[in-house]
């Protein structure tokens, strides 16, 4: 079996490795390199050591953005996973089992498709729709539903709620994917286990917490990482939806938006790259932490 | 990303801001990467030229073709194909015009400039325009001195420069030489529905007391007196506020701001303007506008739910499709804030924009300039205005013409202002971060209590932070 | 809907096959009703915006702009669709999007399948490192790479080109493709390879004749995912290319910004834009679940 292994390996991997080396590794090295410059994006490049990092340490918007990223990082995975788990459970196990089919609630296949729909809509469209949902006057869908005597909520234009609005949209868009993901995971849990538990008189709630969640733990872990990454990114949505791109008064600024704006609006490519470096390490730290922390609790490990 | 309602705005500030925004894309210059705007060394192979004469002041080769590229945006390209080119060919029948259009100038033209094969005349505009400063630095733009000194195409006895509005040539001047022709001309002011105002018997205010009195009346009629879109058009409000400040203390107040002079934002003119506008915000604005976008507030104005909207003269054309029959755009100058205002109530803020230039390294730069000379004729300017509903820098080209009510109104305002027209401020294009801060600050001022002192202090702090940041390239003006 | 995945990999671990026999686990009528009520409410929440898109797309302009919107078009019209189709660059950008997406997905499948084979079937020096990089790419927001990416592609004269974007998308969807296919290939027992080798197959034949067909559902699942990703992407293509070389997503965004209140055609455009993805999804939504779990399996 060992004979002639390397020609295959090299042949199979040369293209992807070359692609990564160029588009990811080299690109990142360049980001690191530029983060040490005061490059505006134009003209000559001056190396300024770690000045950019000192500057961002004192940058209010940077800390605001970090705060918002953390807000998303904590709430987006938790809420999304809880909702998705509950629904996946309802769809798969909630209706009980009959006739050799692990029967979800009635029409579970339809639900699954419906929940997946937001995932299929492009963000550009999602942003437009939710712009109407959160319309700040009576023509907005939510304000329209509120009692006439209420003063209209400003939603995205209100510093207090703007970030929450962004969170809601992110959850709305993500949840379906994870319902399907968890459903698939649940489908692979053997019915014997449920049967055995049922013989012990387990209720649905017990089934959920004692069997489904532990057995799905590795899938949940993956979901957590993916959602965390989505929380770190969030650029596209904030960029299109928020008032004044990251406003009002920086109330929806996130790191990726700062990168984009510094690079393409503020002509501070060096600074943008420094932010990129920070984002890089934050994301990796998060992923490593998540995998390490959750692995310990995993029943499978 | 794309500007919010990009392509129809053609004022200088927007253009410059976009130049800054896309500058990064236009000229990368990292170590191993060499794709920057070509250097000034390589001489063009052969450039077409002919003998100069009274009839051919730029000395073009009457048989050499001219290649032009026009940005296809809010202004369209019909003015080039249907007005300018026929006009050019009437005089130079043998010079074939090769026309092409593009939505993104930098992605299409930049490689050709790098390859030493640029078109002869380029309309550098749109959300992906090329950084013009870099083009000039690289020696890729032709010096337009001879064009502006040449006799006008169709105004006898005047040079091209003499037919233009004040400041038009200066706005395209870099290090003392003109390289760009800024063609379109934007007037800023308060926009309203002339028909509504006539039917209600409301007259245009010139003093602040008149203004607030009128606002009371409008409010009593169940209409929001004043509004702007906080979500993405707050810079119109910044312009309103700073225009008022300039009227109080002359344009010097704005120059100080642009030059990041300490105390510029806390100076009296700014404070007085902020106070006056903050009061308007407290009393007459609809607070939900904070979350609305330009088009949404415009929709309300179209339905006569808002009386005054601060904007530039592109507004009418931008809204053309959605303007109902009972609506007639008109503009007026911002009223005087105090009786002691240094500029008269009729003073306005107007600026040239939309860059056209001849490529220095093209096959026929003189032909490109001649095309520009044709564009700067009264005939072409009028044609442009008719097609695009946008004024040009050619002075008085559309006088006496009824093209559209909004345009006529803008022209009137311009005439009334006489010499009291000022270019305004440039800090928003020079220092985007400061621009951002001003948007947030003006929203707070107008929607959240009208604290003028807070506005001034916040802007002063941001301005000084920019001044101290050595990584930001500084500009000055005088 | 097909109950079992056609051509699913043969038994791996204790996965999936639905048990025979009647099971009556945790079953109560009220519980089912409650579950369904929650499900319906949630479906409404999920679907309402989608419904609103449809609603708006079929409304004539004056109804769209009415300040008190109605829940149903009074005079349904296809005008918005025609106007979207006739809008400048719509068809062009649709074609661009298709080309870019198909190139990227096809490329990612070929490259990804081979890479997954190498990772799943061979032990070699640097294997761990490659897995790490593959995973790492998924973790890092691509935005941080936009500046160097642009500079690189410009050096290679691949800006404003469909090829440049295709390559970028390929890189973007490759990690997921490799990861998922790796899961599928690991699920195929090695004994099968060995048996085939004993029967006289060459190793290449084993890959081609045995593993590739068995990975079929995985290929389908990953291609859908890749298709959705590439089709819906707009930041990269908007940064790299001019409108004539962008996709429908970028087209939508630009028309949203330049057309202002023309919601009707915009929504119609949105629907047309979403159709390929939705159709794709509906056809193979069964496989997508299989693909998702395969990708999620540890090891």
TrEMBL record, chain A:
Is Transmembrane among this UniProt entry's keywords? yes
Domain ABC transmembrane type-1, residue spans: 66-290
Report whether Disulfide bond shows up as a keyword of the record: no
InterPro entries in the record: ABC_transporter_permease (IPR051393), MetI-like (IPR000515), MetI-like_sf (IPR035906)
Protein keywords: Cell membrane, Membrane, Transmembrane, Transmembrane helix, Transport
Q: Where are the transmembrane segments?
A: 7-29, 70-93, 113-134, 161-186, 207-232, 269-291
Q: Which family does it belong to?
A: Belongs to the binding-protein-dependent transport system permease family.
Under which name does UniProt file this protein?
Answer: Sugar ABC transporter permease
This protein's species is Paractinoplanes durhamensis
Automatic annotation (TrEMBL), chain B:
Key words, A-Z? Signal, Transport
Q: What SUPFAM superfamilies is this protein classified in?
A: Periplasmic binding protein-like II
Question: Pfam families attached here?
Answer: SBP_bac_1
Q: Which residues form a coiled coil?
A: none
Top-level taxon of the source organism: Bacteria
What compartments host this protein? Answer: Cell envelope
Renumbered to this chain, the signal peptide range is: none
InterPro entries cross-referenced by the UniProt entry: Bact_solute-bd_prot1, Chitin_NgcE, SBP
Assign the protein's first listed, main location to one coarse class: other
The UniProt similarity line reads: Belongs to the bacterial solute-binding protein 1 family.
Protein's UniProt name:
Carbohydrate ABC transporter, N-acetylglucosamine/diacetylchitobiose-binding protein
What's the source species for this entry?
Answer: Paractinoplanes durhamensis
Automatic annotation (TrEMBL), chain C:
CDD domains according to UniProt:
TM_PBP2
Coiled-coil annotation reads none
- InterPro entries recorded for this chain? BP-dep_ABC_trans_perm, MetI-like, MetI-like_sf
Which organism is this protein's natural source?
A: Paractinoplanes durhamensis
Per the record, the similarity remark reads: Belongs to the binding-protein-dependent transport system permease family.
Q: Which UniProt keywords apply?
A: Cell membrane, Membrane, Transmembrane, Transmembrane helix, Transport
Ranges for the region named Disordered are: 1-23
Q: Where in the cell is it found?
A: Cell membrane
According to UniProt, the name of this protein is Sugar ABC transporter permease
Q: Which residues form the signal peptide?
A: none
Ranges where the ABC transmembrane type-1 domain occurs:
94-284
Which PROSITE patterns did the record assign? ABC_TM1
């Amino acid at each position: 079996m060992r004979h002639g292994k390397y020609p295959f390996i090299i042949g199979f991997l040369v293209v992807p490795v070359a692609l990564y080396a160029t588009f990811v590794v080299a690109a990142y090295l360049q980001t690191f390199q530029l983060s040490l410059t005061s490059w505006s994006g134009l003209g000559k490049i001056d190396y300024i050591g770690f000045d950019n990092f000192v500057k961002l340490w004192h940058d209010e918007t940077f800390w605001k953005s970090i705060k918002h990223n953390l807000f998303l990082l904590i709430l987006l995975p938790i809420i999304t996973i809880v909702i998705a788990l509950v629904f996946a459970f309802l769809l798969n196990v909630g209706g009980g089992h009959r006739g050799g089919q692990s029967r979800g609630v009635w029409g579970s296949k339809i639900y699954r498709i419906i929940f997946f729909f937001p995932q299929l809509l492009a963000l550009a469209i999602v942003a437009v729709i939710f712009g109407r949902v959160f319309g700040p006057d009576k023509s907005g869908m939510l304000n329209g539903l509120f009692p006439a005597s209420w003063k209209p909520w400003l939603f995205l234009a209100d510093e207090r709620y703007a970030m929450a609005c962004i969170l809601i949209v992110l959850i709305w868009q993500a949840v379906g994917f994870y319902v399907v993901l968890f459903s698939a995971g649940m489908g692979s849990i053997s019915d014997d286990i449920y049967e055995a538990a049922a013989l012990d008189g387990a209720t649905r709630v017990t089934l959920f917490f004692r069997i489904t969640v532990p057995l799905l733990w590795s899938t949940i872990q993956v979901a957590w990482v993916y959602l965390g990454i989505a929380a770190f990114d969030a650029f596209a949505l904030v960029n299109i939806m928020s008032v004044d791109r990251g406003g009002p008064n920086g109330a929806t600024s996130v790191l990726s938006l700062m990168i984009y704006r510094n690079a393409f609006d503020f002509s501070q490519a060096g600074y943008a790259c420094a932010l990129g470096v920070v984002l890089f390490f934050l994301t990796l730290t998060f992923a490593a932490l998540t995998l390490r922390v959750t692995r310990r609790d995993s029943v499978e490990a | 990303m794309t500007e919010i309602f990009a392509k129809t705005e053609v004022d200088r500030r927007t253009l410059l801001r976009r130049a800054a925004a896309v500058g990064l894309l236009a000229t990368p210059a990292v170590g191993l990467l060499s794709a920057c705007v070509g250097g000034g060394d390589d001489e063009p192979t052969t450039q077409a030229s002919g003998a100069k004469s009274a009839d051919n002041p730029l000395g073009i080769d009457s048989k050499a073709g001219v290649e032009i590229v026009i940005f296809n945006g809010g202004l369209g390209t019909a003015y080039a194909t249907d007005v300018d080119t026929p006009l050019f060919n009437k005089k130079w029948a043998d010079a074939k015009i090769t026309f092409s259009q593009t939505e993104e100038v930098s992605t299409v033209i930049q490689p050709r400039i790098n390859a030493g094969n640029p078109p002869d005349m380029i309309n550098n505009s749109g959300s992906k325009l090329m950084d013009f400063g870099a083009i000039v630095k690289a020696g890729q733009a032709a010096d337009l001195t001879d064009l502006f000194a040449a006799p006008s195409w169709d105004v006898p006895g005047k040079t091209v420069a003499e037919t233009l509005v004040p400041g038009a040539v200066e706005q395209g001047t870099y290090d003392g030489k003109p390289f760009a022709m800024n063609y379109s001309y934007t007037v800023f002011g308060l926009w309203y529905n002339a028909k509504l105002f006539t039917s209600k018997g409301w007259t245009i205010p010139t003093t602040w007391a008149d203004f607030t009195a009128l606002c009371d009346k409008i409010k009593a009629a169940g209409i929001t007196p004043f509004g702007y879109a906080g979500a993405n058009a707050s810079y119109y409000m910044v312009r309103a506020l700073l225009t008022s400040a300039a009227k109080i203390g002359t344009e010097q107040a704005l120059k100080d701001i642009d030059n990041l002079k300490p105390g510029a934002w806390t100076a009296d003119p700014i404070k007085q303007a902020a106070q006056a506008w903050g009061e308007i915000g407290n009393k007459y604005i609809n607070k939900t506008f904070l979350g609305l976008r330009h088009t949404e507030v415009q929709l309300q104005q179209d339905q006569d739910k808002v009386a005054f909207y601060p904007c530039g003269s592109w507004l009418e054309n931008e809204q053309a499709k959605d303007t109902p029959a009972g609506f007639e755009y008109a503009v007026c100058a911002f009223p005087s804030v105090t009786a002691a205002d240094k500029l008269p109530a009729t003073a306005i803020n107007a600026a040239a924009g939309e860059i056209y230039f001849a490529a220095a390294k093209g096959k026929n730069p003189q032909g490109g300039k001649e095309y520009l000379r044709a564009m700067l004729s009264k005939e072409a300017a009028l044609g442009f205005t008719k097609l695009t509903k946008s004024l040009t820098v050619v002075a008085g080209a559309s006088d006496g013409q009824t093209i559209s009510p909004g345009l006529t109104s803008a022209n009137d305002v311009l005439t009334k202002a006489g010499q009291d027209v000022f270019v305004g401020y440039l800090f928003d294009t020079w220092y985007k971060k400061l621009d951002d801060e001003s948007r947030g600050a003006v929203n707070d001022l107008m929607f959240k209590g009208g604290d003028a002192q807070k506005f001034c202090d916040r802007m002063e702090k941001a301005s000084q932070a920019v001044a101290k940041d050595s990584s930001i390239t500084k500009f000055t003006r005088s | 809907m097909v109950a079992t995945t056609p051509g699913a990999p043969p038994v791996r671990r204790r996965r999936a096959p639905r048990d025979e026999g009647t099971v009556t686990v945790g079953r109560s009528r009220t519980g089912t009703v409650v579950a369904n009520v929650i499900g319906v409410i949630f479906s409404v929440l999920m679907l309402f915006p989608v419904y609103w898109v449809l609603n708006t797309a079929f409304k004539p302009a004056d109804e769209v702009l009415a300040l008190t919107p109605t829940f149903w078009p009074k005079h349904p019209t296809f005008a918005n669709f025609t106007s979207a189709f006739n809008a400048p660059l719509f068809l062009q950008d649709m074609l661009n999007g298709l080309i870019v997406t198909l190139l990227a997905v096809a490329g990612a499948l070929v490259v990804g399948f081979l890479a997954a084979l190498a990772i799943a079937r061979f032990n070699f020096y640097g294997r761990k490192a490659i897995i790490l990089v593959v995973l790492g790419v998924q973790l890092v927001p691509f935005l941080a790479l936009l500046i160097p990416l642009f500079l690189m592609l410009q050096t290679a004269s691949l800006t404003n080109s469909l090829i440049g974007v295709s390559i970028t998308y390929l890189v973007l969807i490759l990690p997921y493709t490799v990861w998922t296919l790796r899961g599928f290939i690991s699920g195929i027992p090695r004994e099968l390879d060995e048996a085939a080798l004993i029967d006289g197959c060459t190793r290449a034949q084993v890959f081609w004749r045995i593993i590739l067909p068995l990975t079929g559902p995985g290929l389908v699942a990953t291609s859908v995912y890749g298709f959705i990703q590439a089709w819906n992407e707009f930041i990269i293509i908007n940064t790299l290319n001019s409108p004539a070389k962008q996709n429908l997503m970028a087209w939508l965004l630009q028309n949203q910004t330049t057309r202002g209140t023309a919601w009707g055609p915009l929504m119609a455009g949105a629907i047309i834009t979403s159709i390929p993805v939705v159709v794709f999804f509906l056809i193979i939504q069964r496989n997508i679940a299989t693909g998702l779990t395969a990708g999620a399996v540890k090891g």
